[in-house]
Design goal:
Six copies of one chain form a homohexamer. By secondary structure, the first copy, chain A, is α/β, with parallel strands linked by helices. Chain A is about 45% helix and about 15% strand.
Chain lengths: ~220, ~220, ~220, ~220, ~220, ~220
Amino acid sequence: MTPSILVINPNCTEAMTRGIDDACAPLRMPGGPAIETATLKEGPPGIETQQHVDGLIPPLTAFVRKNEAKHAAFVIACYSDPGIFSVREVTKKPVLGIAECGILTAMTLGSKFGVIAILQKSIPRHLRYMGAMGVMDRCAGELPVDLPVLELADEKKTFGRMVSVGRKLREQGADVVVMGCAGMARYRDALQQELGVPVVEPTQAAVSMAIGRVRVNWERI
Amino acid sequence: MTPSILVINPNCTEAMTRGIDDACAPLRMPGGPAIETATLKEGPPGIETQQHVDGLIPPLTAFVRKNEAKHAAFVIACYSDPGIFSVREVTKKPVLGIAECGILTAMTLGSKFGVIAILQKSIPRHLRYMGAMGVMDRCAGELPVDLPVLELADEKKTFGRMVSVGRKLREQGADVVVMGCAGMARYRDALQQELGVPVVEPTQAAVSMAIGRVRVNWERI
Amino acid sequence: MTPSILVINPNCTEAMTRGIDDACAPLRMPGGPAIETATLKEGPPGIETQQHVDGLIPPLTAFVRKNEAKHAAFVIACYSDPGIFSVREVTKKPVLGIAECGILTAMTLGSKFGVIAILQKSIPRHLRYMGAMGVMDRCAGELPVDLPVLELADEKKTFGRMVSVGRKLREQGADVVVMGCAGMARYRDALQQELGVPVVEPTQAAVSMAIGRVRVNWERI
Amino acid sequence: MTPSILVINPNCTEAMTRGIDDACAPLRMPGGPAIETATLKEGPPGIETQQHVDGLIPPLTAFVRKNEAKHAAFVIACYSDPGIFSVREVTKKPVLGIAECGILTAMTLGSKFGVIAILQKSIPRHLRYMGAMGVMDRCAGELPVDLPVLELADEKKTFGRMVSVGRKLREQGADVVVMGCAGMARYRDALQQELGVPVVEPTQAAVSMAIGRVRVNWERI
Amino acid sequence: MTPSILVINPNCTEAMTRGIDDACAPLRMPGGPAIETATLKEGPPGIETQQHVDGLIPPLTAFVRKNEAKHAAFVIACYSDPGIFSVREVTKKPVLGIAECGILTAMTLGSKFGVIAILQKSIPRHLRYMGAMGVMDRCAGELPVDLPVLELADEKKTFGRMVSVGRKLREQGADVVVMGCAGMARYRDALQQELGVPVVEPTQAAVSMAIGRVRVNWERI
Amino acid sequence: MTPSILVINPNCTEAMTRGIDDACAPLRMPGGPAIETATLKEGPPGIETQQHVDGLIPPLTAFVRKNEAKHAAFVIACYSDPGIFSVREVTKKPVLGIAECGILTAMTLGSKFGVIAILQKSIPRHLRYMGAMGVMDRCAGELPVDLPVLELADEKKTFGRMVSVGRKLREQGADVVVMGCAGMARYRDALQQELGVPVVEPTQAAVSMAIGRVRVNWERI
């Protein structure tokens, strides 16, 4: 039986999961690990606050515990990497977060990375995470799109904001940009084109690393 | 009515809360803020794993929300500062963690601080936190007492281990030591005596900062 | 007899000492440590240069030595923390500086702090101090009000400059602001209101920490 | 036609290339990118000095330029990542180094990584590289096996030294270990078993990341 | 016989070497080391890319090996310090790079240094070098003149760009500026005048340090 | 008239000044700047405490002010670089400290430097200075000789301790050693021989840089 990687969208918005699933498509290879996606139905509709992040961890760990035997690796597909260290206690199998993998991948693509966040209020949380990762010297900055939720549905407006934020990050020294949300994948190609620097889609970054981990079969100890 | 600081023991062990309450005694002043302690009864008996930390956040935030109006400030009395950023969303009143305040206080008492942890497995979590705080250059190291729970009850053995760990931290360059647990307060004086460097009891460090915060009435925004 | 904290204005301008004394008022509690202020009459009228800072250390240490027995703790109320390490040799009682305590307190209130200095030429000195503290990763920047002394008397103009400098610090990523001078206390509430981020008055930050230190009676060794 | 990843051993020792090829085996998937290996015949027999590193760059870039059209990505399989930035000028296709990918992968597996080098004299070069990567805060140390070349052929002796070096790194705080040479792959499983912490084989780490990069087709710009 | 310092221009442009020679003039003292300059005729006309940097290392090390006995110290006069670590293997005599010496010298002249580069594309390389040096906390930024080669011949235009770039670096916090190219020496005095902060000419910085090294006769080991 | 560099021993022990003068001898060149030494007679006999450091600054600045016109540059020959920033306000001519120049010079000679201090109690002060310099990532450690003053006169014993401390620094990763005192010069050659790594004598490092500064005539601004 083919081993599988479970990519978990920890918010309960199925449309987001479908977008994540689409982002995984190029990483599905005959003979490679299956890549499945799941929605944490106990998650909030969107993950905006620290309470959203912390509140979903108990159901997320329960969910992974329940499904642990069925999968070879787990990816947490929210740019706050919620519960990543708790989930790593639930299973010795690989558990990867899209924020860490997005950033680490960016570090192979440029000298300074910038991050495009959705919301200003997520940035202190992300800064703490980058500090914990020990990579602040490589970070040129993180800036928010900061559109009201309703306007995020307007793809043209959203993309326009991503471009202007990306340009500001370039001015601050970024020569590679990380998309700071699991729901931005469909804009990646156009954004890279527009900005003229590599753009990292973090779910793809994490699933890429998970594939290798499944194949070489390194357990954590 | 006197404003009060609520010091929350986020594990459910009442004996620990009593120890915390004793540690607060010297900080109770006529005319100063009342200092009350509470036990999070939904917390685990001891906070050892990341799942313990993350799992208690929802009941902790609920508890603070319920008691928010009654107190002027909140201290989270576990050296992992569990839920500190979620609780700061629940109230604009001061919320302080004993790990952050213990470390920041140590930074006024020496050039390099060392931390005495209870368990080896907590250290990666504490390292991430120190990284997020941006204070790794001041940290000489963190080492665990690493006694089985049953032997922690043996005060003589526990103190002996704290002394030997403290000495190893001194050899690594620490000239101030932080007690990495809310339950070590009763050993502080003797440990400082034995080690010959200042020893920071982190609950006292946090409550001290909370008293000032209550008096000057700075709200977060 | 009530123990007392002596807050020393190391410049000789009595009006500054009165402002510092006013800033301490909310921290005076009936059963808490007395908080007294003193003016170092050998200090310069204002502390602007490195020579001012270094030149006042001998009289400051003499002053503390002479008054050592009468007080339980000492606060040096100049944002360059002049002589803090010499004074710590004169007494084993707590000695706190307003720059260190202002910054450490800000680190509990935001993810990146900014500092409002009076003069451009003080900033290199402050940068060295932040470097020595090991907290540069948390600093979003320091910017000067840079008004000629005569215009500092114009409160409206001064406040206007503090607001514009504070806004620039916010743009640079600061989500908490430290007042980089002992003489700005009266602007704190209005400035916080105007900027929409917490503003730390450093003398209050230092006295707060000193109160706790007196109560728990930790000597340095 | 299946795209292929070319893993280049930049020293001229074919036996080393065969070991690298074996290390790649688990990452070959029926529908995934082909993984080919090549030996840089102009390279030195072993890469020990800075002159070895720098001297092989011109033939390495020539080699990549010549083969650029035939492959979808390139991995440089020497733990000094020789010529990585020159090769990235030769092609816009992904170019990954095993040192950077080994370290970045370790950062997802522990809080502090240690590196096992072959030679003491390589360590300053590796330290410079980690400094350039901005990841020194995550590094617990790097220590050499330091066996004379002839004795490296003695697998039992070599493994014994790797175990003792790995244990010393653990004592220095490492909770994940990176193999600092492309020729150590066959020891990975046993070493991880012996040390009780994850052990990263860097060629596998790099090829894993390359597979994803080929699939998602991110060009550098 | 007077010992001599050989200052090597690793590009093949003789006019550049003459400019370097002029820059060395004030450092020639009767009774002091002779200061000779040489052109690496195998070098590229200008050093712009990583391939230029890496490609000149083999001829550079060959050149130094050949001339090793004739000189007491070597300075590599290109702001990428090409081959510095290889050359240090060729001789135990002092080998200094103008980038390292320019930056280290700037660290004695201000609190934050800024660098004026010729080309944007050199900046990631310089950032890696500053990261490897461990001095990023002192760097306020690096910005390029970014003029097409033909326009660099226009001294007035070039100087104008250097002034505007230098001013931008000052706004970013630089209080000392390093010239990020061996060919800018003739602009130093005027640039310092214009910017009002010290300007470091890196060849002069390196030769200065080399003179002392020759006199005190410290060999590397 | 030949310009001169004044090397000031800020303690009042003439024997120390003579040792410093001897250390300068190889840097005296017929056509180079004169190198003179002076003793600050108001300085303490030895500089051991922070009060010694701070207390000598007023007479030191007075001394430099008085002699400013007579010299072209000033070196402060105590490893605490006392008063360096005040003296830089007194004159626009070059002012260099032996600690900063010793460390910066070591950064050209190895990847990690270690420092041999005389006294344990000086180390926190030196750590703050290295933090302010922003070079902590390059420091492998600082360790004291820690001999009672009387025993320092015993050269054999002192040298023995320097060797054993130097070896411990090597074990901690140092591949270059800085002598953390102006009075150790006579041991340099033998210590380097014994340790097998470069040993930096800091007064020679500072005077070397001063010679260049005098010749190129860069004023601070």
